[in-house]
Design brief:
By secondary structure, the protein is α+β, with helices and mostly antiparallel strands. It contains 4 helices and 6 strands; from the N terminus they run βββααβββαα. It has a single domain, classed as NE0471 N-terminal domain-like (2-Layer Sandwich). The structure holds zinc ion.
């Protein structure tokens, strides 16, 4: 039987609240998304605005660390609406954008002229830099 699904449509979404999201796409590609990188790529207007100001999208002052995913729901058939453990819940991640991201392309295009989403390479670098910062803090507390 031929599939009616577009390549970027999800056939399975696995949520690991502390580490990441694994999506199986209709074309057979299985992609794992790092939680921090997903948060840093948040396409909502608030996060776009923060990026425009050169501010960190996460962690924000008072953000619980480590980052956790509290809830994820399908937004219609086209996206994933994520609620984070700091109650930030305005980001809807289109599956088409996540699919492009998994292929190393910039999945999220700014639709408003505000806050361009970083490239997958930049997101990885930012997440590593934040992890390093937290490791340093943990080291000082030890
Ligand atoms: Zn956001």
């Amino acid at each position: 039987m031929e599939s009616e699904l577009a390549p970027h449509e999800p056939v399975d979404v696995q949520i690991k609240r502390d580490t990441g999201i694994t999506i199986s796409f209709a074309d057979g590609m299985v992609a794992e998304f790092n939680l921090v990188e997903v948060r840093l790529a948040c396409p909502c207007a608030t996060c776009r605005g923060l990026r425009d100001q050169g501010a960190d999208v996460w962690p924000r002052p008072g953000s619980p660390i480590p980052l956790r995913l509290d809830d994820a729901e399908f937004h219609g058939a086209w996206g994933l609406n994520i609620t984070w453990n700091d109650q930030h819940a305005t980001g809807i991640f289109p599956f088409e954008a996540l699919y492009k991201w998994a292929k190393g392309e910039i999945g999220f295009r700014s639709d408003s002229g505000l806050g361009e989403i970083p490239s997958p390479t930049e997101l990885k670098a930012q997440a590593a830099e934040i992890a390093q910062r937290h490791a340093d803090i943990d080291g000082e507390n030890a």
